[in-house]
Amino acid sequence: LLTLLAPSIVGAPGIRRRCAPKDGNPVSETEHEMSTRFKQYGDLLTLGIMFPACIAIGYGLGYLLDSWTGNRNTFSFIGILFGIAAAFINLFRVVKKVDGKE
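^ that's the sequence the OP posted. Answer follows.
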C-alpha cells in the first residue's frame, strides 16, 4: 500500500530519485530526460521541412538565373544540386547535434 501512495519514498522500481539542479527546484531525472528527448525529436522533425525547402530555394534561384540569362534549365539543375547538397549538410549538422557531439 505504501508503494502505491508514495513510490518515490519507498524507492519502487521505475521511479528515479529527484535531484536538485543549480536553481534549487527539484526536477526528476526522468523529466529532464524527457525534455531532452522532446528537443531531439523537434530537431529531427525540422528535417522534414528543411529538405524540401533547401531544394526549392536552390531550384528557385536557378530558375531566376535561367530567366535572366536566357538559358534553358541549366541553372535550375545546378540549383537543385546545390539545394540537395545544402540539405545533406544540414542533415549532418542536426544528427551531430542530436548525438550530442556538438
